[in-house]
Amino acid sequence: MEKIKINTEFIKLDQLLKYANAVEGGGMAKNVILDGMVKVNGEVVLQRGKKLRDGDIVKYNNEEYIISTEEK
């Protein structure tokens, strides 16, 4: 599981996929989310603007990413 550190209150799902280099760009992020290929905390999410906060776990393409804020 890869820890993704953010210094804001939240990060949007499509931005996270780009930030973590899980996808090549915004268009690809949109497509994999809308195709139901991304899970957040174990559930398929189809909203690319879904706000992810500290402790959320994203799974895509057999990789897991956990969101972490700087305060911890």
UniProtKB/TrEMBL annotation:
Name listed for the protein in its UniProt record: RNA-binding S4 domain-containing protein
Pfam families found in the cross-reference section: S4_2 (PF13275)
Entry keywords, A to Z: RNA-binding
MF term (GO), any: RNA binding
